[in-house]
Each structure stands twice: as C-alpha cells, then as structure tokens.
Specification:
With about 110 residues, this protein is mainly alpha-helical. The protein has one domain. It has six helices and no strands. The longest helix has 23 residues.
C-alpha cells in the first residue's frame, strides 16, 4: 500500500477511536462511525468516485456534497448533551477537513 493510503487509513482509525472514547449518545456515535467508515475510507471514496464518473462530469463535487449532507444528517442524531460539547463541533469540522484533503489527494493521484 502506498504511504498516502496508509496515512488516510490511520486518520480513519484515529477518528473511530476518538468517537468510541467520547461520551456521545449511542445513536449519534453509531451515525458518526458510519460516516467515518464511508467517507474517510480511501477505498470506499475511490469506488464512489469511479461509480459517479459514469453519471456525472464532476464526480468529486458530487461526492463532496454527499459527504457534507450526510454529516449534516448525522448531526441531527445528536442529542442536546452531545451538542453542548464544543469539542464535538471541532471534531466534526476536522472530519470534514480530513475528507476534503483525502478527496483532493485522490483527485491529483
């Protein structure tokens, strides 16, 4: 495996460990885990881009919009206690940043 794939796999595993160690509601934690496994997995994202290329001229924009929308829907699963924690809001923005960096890397590879 190339170094960049290992890097993004490590990001994914770190995000999953962080989610499991945070005091989050069960539903929200489960949804975040699903989001991370779908959008921070370089193989999953590459497959999605490959499939999207058949239907869309700019698959990267489409995948980016889906990831943002899915993260917004994931946030809807959070309860009041989850949203009071400022750390989770920062973490969510970092998840999106990691996704965008990986997407940029896939695009240039």
């Amino acid at each position: 495996m190339s170094d960049w794939i290992n890097y993004y796999e490590d990001n994914k595993q770190t995000a999953l460990m962080r989610i499991n160690n945070m005091a989050l509601s069960t539903g929200y934690s489960r949804e975040l885990n699903c989001w991370v496994n779908k959008y921070l997995d370089p193989f999953s994202v590459a497959r999605a881009i490959s499939e999207e290329r058949k239907e869309n001229l700019d698959p990267f924009s489409r995948i980016r919009m889906e990831a943002e929308k899915d993260l917004e829907f994931t946030v809807l699963r959070a309860n009041n206690r989850d949203r009071r924690n400022g750390e989770i809001i920062f973490f969510e923005s970092n998840l999106l940043l990691m996704f965008n960096l990986m997407l940029k890397h896939i695009r240039t590879a």
